[in-house]
Amino acid sequence: MKPLEGVKVVDLSTYVAASSCGRMMADWGADVIKVEAPSGDGYRKFGRAYKCPVDDDCNPLFDSLNANKRGIVINLKTEEGMAVMHKMLETADVFLTNTRNQSLVPMGLDYETLMEKYPRLVIANLSAYGEKGPEVNRPGYDTMSLWTRCGFTHDVSLINEGHYAPTLPLMGTGDIPVAMGLMAAINAALLAREKTGKGDRVALSLMGTGLWMGSQMIESTQFGHVYPKNRFTQSPVGAAYECSDGTWFNCNVVNFPKDYPNFLRLMNHTELLDDPLYNNRPNMNKPEIAEHLYKLFAAEFIKQPASYWKEQFELNDLCYEVVGTFRGALDDPTAWENDFLYKMKHDNGTESVLVRPSMTSVNLGLPEYNRAPKLGEHTKEVLAQYGYSEAEIDKMLADGAAVQR
Questions:
Q1: In order of start, what are the domains of the chain with their CATH numbers?
Q2: In sequence order, which residues have a C-beta less than 8 Å from that of residue 195 and are 6 or more positions away?
Q3: Are strands 122-127 and 94-97 parallel, antiparallel or unpaired?
Q4: Model confidence over 29-76: pLDDT tens digits?
Q5: Catalytic one among 11, 63, 110, 175?
Q6: Total-model pTM
Q7: Has 175 been annotated as catalytic?
């Protein structure tokens, strides 16, 4: 039995964060019904911005976030469509949405209204800027509300020879942690309901998650830690260095008393161990010392290819990583060994490599993969499941209250 088997989720989500939360719950056994307007989730066509196919028979980015769900199209602007929504909510365990409250209230799908009707329901809301304040109804995406607002776009840039430019905020990289946090909150609320019999409202925001993600950097700034950095103001024992083959190699000496001597031995600078300027970690926060050490170490790293440094760091049990690429991740043997990646055959016969959510469970095993629903693919099936007759379904389809494609 899968951990979330028997849990019913009504998923009124669009784009990345809330949708991927629903996908992960479906992986873990929940019955997730994705509810879309007749126009469909806008993310169905978003892959074009990344040179990806967006056809009904091949839509890898949409599939990645909506796998293992069923899909229904109902027009919530009609009485019949809204009646279907409430029919599903009557027996649902979770209502998942990233719809802003200013739109939920007129539809009667806000927390106060739903909890009065369905006191056992767990309502999961995702917002851009939280539940209070003047920005509560602002639209937002992770590139803006998380990356740009919370400091990442500005402060993770590396100043190069005095020139600064904000870094590129990467779509979805903030949404996915938000989704994982929201799933944890949902499951905690479901567990509590087993004890109390009461539902709950759980909420997560892009901005709030961004602040939590960046908490260590944000908190450190009040004590004088400065961002953004340049190559010489970052830690010289936690920096990337270019190797002779043009590859960049990132070291990370965190356990200073244990690992710094071995690191200096590899750098051919053991004399620094006896120098009070260079043998203690706090001094490396001083720009002049950091710059001096960076230049010393850079002169050593450039003498050998990354493969040499990889071997040496492993022999000395030192933390490192070769600087990778998104494209290179598709060929990473460790990713394949751990089932982080999988091959998906699309309906048009082509094949893509997709990334699997990496949470594991002995009881769950490796989740099976079913592609995302096509727009309105399961409308008739779901309506019949909720007790609608064939005649009633045909009338809703004819009236535009529901769509089957």
A1: 8-214+375-403 (3.40.50.10540), 235-327 (3.30.1540.10)
A2: none
A3: parallel
A4: 999 999 999 999 999 999 999 999 999 999 999 999 999 999 999 999
A5: 175
A6: 0.94
A7: yes
